[in-house]
Design goal:
Helices cover 24% and strands 14% of the residues. With 617 residues, the chain is of the alpha/beta class. The strands form five sheets. It has an eight-stranded mixed β-sheet with strand order 8-7-9-6-12-13-14-15, with helices on both faces. A four-stranded antiparallel β-sheet has the order 2-3-1-4, with helices on both faces. A hairpin with a 2-residue loop joins β2 and β3. α8 packs parallel to α12 and α13 crosses α15. The longest helix has 19 residues.
């Protein structure tokens, strides 16, 4: 039985105070773009050409390589599959790093040598997001019933909950900025770990890596950055902490059906917070260690994870490719490192879900890596959200929010965003509250939540079946005619296709149906919902979009011609010679008069590609 939905948002007093305009929810800000870079210059990553050598021999080989190359680095820790992290006691400048890399790449005993790049969170667009608690019925519209008129892109968790409300057996790991204490979330959290290895970036009192995944804040002021450019080179300035991990964890595992706060996707969730991001985004090496630990693999110097995850959610997106043949040696080596780790996780049956990124361009890393389930963001009407990246690596689109920042088309087409748990502190943790956000990082958790419900409904599903089912059950992308198709030159709000947005829009209820009978599941026959409105037309013109031609409406079926009357039979001759009255005979009869009326009756047809639905937000 479906549980009653909540009728109000309970926000902490400090949240209400923070919203001076009476919003009732915290305004959330984030970076304007993702970045990558070798930060600080104290860490390199290498891979032995023969990664299968005895693990005990590998450090000795590396020591000889470093000594013979004259590179002042120390062997720090293994990253699996022959990969190793190397550290310098004193950071080298760019010229020194270049010399070290040149020497290491020339050594035949090494397959790769790279700087330890950093991924930045893909979460929150830079502008403040406003969400009024005065409209509680739409606070979590993305969880609610899908409706072709008022809630087009909703993933439909409510209908899936009629079948299953989730299971504690499927652990979901959130690789992010860590977690802050929240009364609407704590009960569903497992003990996590902090993998941010550089103490300054970890912002935890000089400790660096440590037990627990508490988020002390990731704000970096301009003044702090300017005071030590060597340390913070390549890091993004963020005046406020993001509390990004708390937001994502709340989407997946907020305590549900408790008459307060927000609902989570899995009512019986076990969320594993894995802190991989600090004040300078996430190091590739820290990310890989976090991925492997979350899945239950061994990581040097870290206790084994007693609660291995079956699903890993990554809300980060670099601006680089995941091609091992990339002309940039650092990028190519990082791609190989990611792919080695991804192969290990997939070998254990772990689903890796990652955000596409928020730069309106190509899909970012690691969502663009083979074996990762990349997710783009749709807005409430179902077309691409303004900020979302897109491309052939995307597997599905899901609602990610599309807030009104007073940019082009925002007043006409924006929605109210994704509401979740957050902390109200500006830079350091303060009180727990709720906030509204937008970003592909908030679309990806919905796919992870759907997968968790699928495994709850059928624990015997394989990883391949879950991925297949998520795509086979998707609803077709909507067609916003006036906005045109998404292309490199039409990259704001636009119409997604399979080549740019994956199989379609997430449909959780259908995904759970697939889970119950993967061998016999047949997807419902559904056509793309066509959208037209004054606001869409106005936006298409403002963006300079090339409209998609609107198909003519299907002609009404022609009425069947009335059948010709059947001739009356000739009267039989009267018998002779006996005198008798003539027979009255059989008079001629026509087909029933009511048949024509049925044949010309109208038929109501479901909207499809050729139909027009009107909706103005």
């Amino acid at each position: 039985m479906r549980a009653a939905r909540f009728t109000q948002l309970v926000a902490a007093a400090s949240v209400v105070a923070a919203a001076a305009a009476g919003a009732g929810l915290l305004r959330v800000a984030g970076p304007s773009k993702a970045a990558h870079g070798a930060v600080g210059g104290s860490t390199l990553i290498v891979k032995l050409a023969d990664g299968g050598q005895d693990g005990a021999e590998q450090p000795s080989i590396l020591h000889r390589v470093l000594a013979q190359a004259g590179v002042p680095l120390k062997v720090d820790s293994p990253l699996g599959n022959g990969w190793w992290r190397l550290r310098a006691d004193t950071p080298g400048d760019s010229a020194a790093q270049a010399r070290w890399l040149q020497a290491l790449r020339a050594d035949a005993r090494l397959a790769h040598a790279m700087r330890d790049l950093h991924e930045q969170r893909a979460a929150v667009p830079n502008d403040p997001l406003f969400r009024s608690a005065a409209d509680p019925t739409s606070s979590q519209w993305w969880l609610d019933d899908q409706n072709d008129t008022t809630n087009i892109a909703a993933a439909g968790f409510t209908k899936a909950w009629d079948t299953t409300t989730g299971s504690a057996a499927t652990v979901v790991a959130v690789l992010d900025s860590g977690i802050t204490s929240h009364g609407d979330l704590n009960a569903n959290l497992l003990p996590g770990y902090n993998f941010v290895s550089k103490p300054e970036y970890a912002n935890n009192g000089g400790t660096g890596r440590s037990g627990g995944a508490n988020d002390p804040g990731d704000a970096l002021s301009q003044a702090e950055r300017d005071s030590n450019l060597a340390l913070w080179d390549g890091c993004l300035v963020n005046a406020n902490s993001s509390w990004h991990g708390t937001l994502v964890a709340g989407q997946l595992g907020a305590v549900t059906n408790n008459n307060g706060g927000v609902a989570g996707m899995n009512w019986n969730a076990r969320i594993l917070p894995v802190r991989v991001s600090g004040k300078c985004g996430a190091s590739v090496a820290d990310m890989v260690d976090g991925m492997r630990w979350a899945a239950g693999l061994s990581v040097a110097g870290v206790p084994v994870n007693p609660n291995p995850a079956r699903i890993v959610v990554i809300g980060f997106s670099g601006v680089t490719s995941c091609s091992t043949s990339d002309p940039n040696a650092d990028v190519a080596a990082a791609a190989r490192l990611y792919q080695d780790a991804i192969a290990e996780l997939r070998g254990k049956g772990v689903l890796i879900v990652a955000a596409a990124g928020n730069l309106r361009g190509s899909v970012g890393r690691p969502a663009n890596c083979a074996g990762v389930f990349g997710v783009a963001a749709a807005n409430r009407q179902g077309f691409k959200a303004l900020y979302s990246n897109f491309g052939p690596e995307i597997q599905l689109a899901a609602p990610g929010g599309d807030g009104d920042y007073q940019r082009t088309c925002d007043p006409e087409l924006s929605d109210t965003g994704i509401v979740s748990t957050i902390n109200t502190g500006k830079t350091a943790p303060a009180t727990a509250g709720y906030g509204a956000v937008s970003g592909t990082s908030f679309a990806a958790p919905q796919v992870a939540g759907a997968a968790a419900l699928m495994w709850a409904a059928n624990p015997a599903l394989t990883l391949s079946q879950v991925e297949t089912g998520l795509k086979a059950s998707a609803r077709p992308h909507v067609t916003a005619y006036a906005l045109g198709y998404c292309t490199s030159t039409n990259n704001s709000r636009c119409t997604l296709q399979p080549s740019t947005g994956g199989a379609g829009l997430l449909d959780v209820a259908e995904a759970v149906k697939y889970a119950l009978a993967p061998q016999t599941y047949t997807a419902p026959v559904r056509s793309s919902l066509g959208l037209q409105s004054t606001n869409l037309s106005r936006c298409g013109q403002a963006q300079g979009s090339t409209p998609i031609p609107v198909p003519p409406p299907a002609p009404a079926p022609a009425p069947a011609p009335a059948p010709a009357p059947t001739p009356a039979p000739s009267p039989a001759p009267a018998p002779s010679p006996a005198p008798a009255p003539a027979s009255s005979g059989g008079g001629g009869s026509s087909s029933p008069w009511w048949l024509l009326g049925l044949l010309t009756a109208g038929v109501a047809l479901r909207p499809g590609v050729g139909s027009v639905s009107t909706r103005d937000d």
